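During data preparation, a discrete fold description was generated, and the record follows.
___
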Amino acid sequence: MKNIYLERLDTMLREGIDNEEELHRICEMLHPAVLGQRLSELDPEDAKAILDRFMPENQALVLSHFRKEKAGEIAELYMDEMLADIIELMPHDDRVDLIKQIPQERREKLLMKVEQPDRDDIMRLSMYEEETAGSVMTSEFVTLRDTMTVEEALVSIRKVAKDRETIYNAYVVDGYNRLTGIVTLRELLLYAGGTKISDIMNTDVVFARDDEDQEVVANRLSEYDLIAMPVLDEQNKIMGIVTFDDVMDVRKEEATEDFHKMGSVGLMNISLSDAPIKLLIYKRLPWLLVLVFMNIFSGAGIAFFEDTIEAVVALVFFLPLLIDSGGNAGAQASTLMVRALATGEVKIRDWFRLFSKEIFVAVIIGIIMGVAVSLIGFFRAGPEVAVVVSLTMICCVTVGSLLGMSLPFLLQKFNFDPATASAPLITSIADIAGVLMYFSIATWYLSI
């Protein structure tokens, strides 16, 4: 469905803004996420020129939906006083992301202009390591005391609701801020006003530790179908919450990271459209150079079997077909295993069971592909070459598949990211193995 307001905004940005009143009306009709995404596509100067037309609270809301790196570029254009006001109005987790994009020297000066409570909150959230639960949590949540009544709890929630990211879940704490239970807004509305919170709260709370990996936390939140999950420190004090929208951002980041690794591309903390040519070359070239030198072994294998090739030149015709099939089978198996490990569907302990299953799957696939390619071999070079090609196809597909499914397990066993078992890496290893297997089988079967 077309968004007529977004289309009109695009027209105004393209042809020039000549009606300030219409611009304000259009921006009010657009969701801040839509507006932030669209303004992210502009040059930082142009995007800020639009933002400057809004009130500070609206600038804060829209800026929180910009890509992190783009928000940092726009922040550089603000005066410290104005930027400090905007930061105070932003969602707590988003403003920490923005602060981290600002150079250290300016960051310290800027924080001195932020109100003390907000500055303390930013400093606390900024201390957590990247990709941990603490780094993605927000401190905008509702706490209650178990000694409260339902009526007192509702009064307390009304006082702070405007400044909280979510009020559906209220977290019950003791005098030391340690989490003791959770109660939902629905439960508060269903029980009588005089009911004690301690009588209706759920003490079996699903939570995360502040130093846990963000992907593990995202999987847990999805597994339990929660809209938010409390984050605790080692003393069980509640430090923040991770919400569903935070999880979606984490999933997007982790998926992007895995795709980059699987394509043998270095991690980029910037969007592809904004990445300069130099950065793209720097991120892609190293792995390609490594794979080039790995493929030298394939060349060495071919050179070793020069006598076999000279005796039956027709073998060369089938070489790309066979080694590519092994690489493709390995890439398929690797992709399935990397994804299964990332989502927690399988664990390291499942390797032997899956390896046994993969043997049967790979052999059956290899036999079917071997029969198919043997027909080509028969008409192209005769029955003897057809047998060699068929046997090699079975071996290439089987070895490639077992390699592809095992390497992610091996990497995880040694605490490396399984996504590093990228398709190009698997393909290169399978190519080397394929060359050796093909000409070894040919030399043996043809008695060369």
Notes: The chain has three domains: 31-127, 142-243, 295-445. The longest helix spans residues 351-381. Residues 263 and 424 are 7 Å apart (CA to CA).
